[in-house]
Amino acid sequence: MNKRPALLVASLAAAAGLALTGCGSGSGSGGYGGSAPTSSAPSSMAPSSMAPSSSSAGGGYGGGDYGGGSGSTPAAGALTLKTATVAGKSIVVDGKGDTVYIFTPDGMNATKSACLGACAAMWPAVESDSAPTLQGVTAKTGSITGSDGKMQVTVAGMPIYFFSHDTAPGQVNGQGVNGVWYVLGADGTVIKDSLK
User: Fold this and answer.
1) Domain ranges (residues) in the chain
2) Dihedral sign from CA coordinates of 167, 171, 176, 182
3) What pairing do the DSSP bridges indicate for beta strands 133-135 and 80-86?
4) Span 29-88, pLDDT tens digits
5) Vertex 99, ends 29 and 132: CA angle to 5°?
6) Distance between CA atoms of 166 and 188, rounded to whole angstroms?
7) CA 162, 128, 20 angle in degrees (round to 5)?
């Protein structure tokens, strides 16, 4: 019996899986894509009703063109960041309810994104052409120049991202991926708890 076709199929499937997940070794290539669990939006997803506020004076904005990214990134223009409740936790989402994440290798007060290449494709930067409108988010917002040269939004000094496997508002499929991707609370606190 010839086992070559089965071995070829298994090899191709493994290679395709790695390409789709954007995973890496974390060796500075911007990996950490990881694979995503599948889930639907939690039924406890509810936008916050807190009044809008503005970012702190200076907020890190000024200069540079902001622009929209890919995936669930909003089109170029104004961005709204608000809070929503998922699994009993108040987290930061965009105006459509899409969850935003931080990448711990970026570190506090990052001046550039550590998420590059396949990582950036899996985890598109949250971009805006101006300081975001804040609704219930009390953390200071700012910006850095993202890996694509556009202005990437920061919350509490950390660049924020969307996850391409979150396909509907309120999904948190990126929470805890590879132990480096997490959601934020309204005050910028990193939330590492499971949200399932």
Assistant:
1) 42-191
2) positive
3) parallel
4) 344 454 444 433 443 333 333 333 333 333 454 433 233 333 344 445 689 999 999 999
5) 95
6) 21
7) 25
Residues with Cβ within 8 Å of residue 162, at least 6 apart in sequence: 69, 71, 72, 73, 94, 98, 99, 100, 101, 123, 124, 126
Tell me how far the alpha carbon of residue 2 is from its chain's centroid. 46
**pLDDT confidence of residue 179:** 97
Q: Distance (Å, rounded) from C-alpha 100 to C-alpha 183?
A: 6
Give the residues across from 117 on adjacent strands. none
CA pair distance 28, 71, nearest whole angstrom: 23
Q: Any idea which of 67-71, 108-112, 156-160 has the lowest mean pLDDT? A: 67-71
Contacts of 116 (CB under 8 A, 6+ apart): 29, 30, 147
- pTM as predicted: 0.67
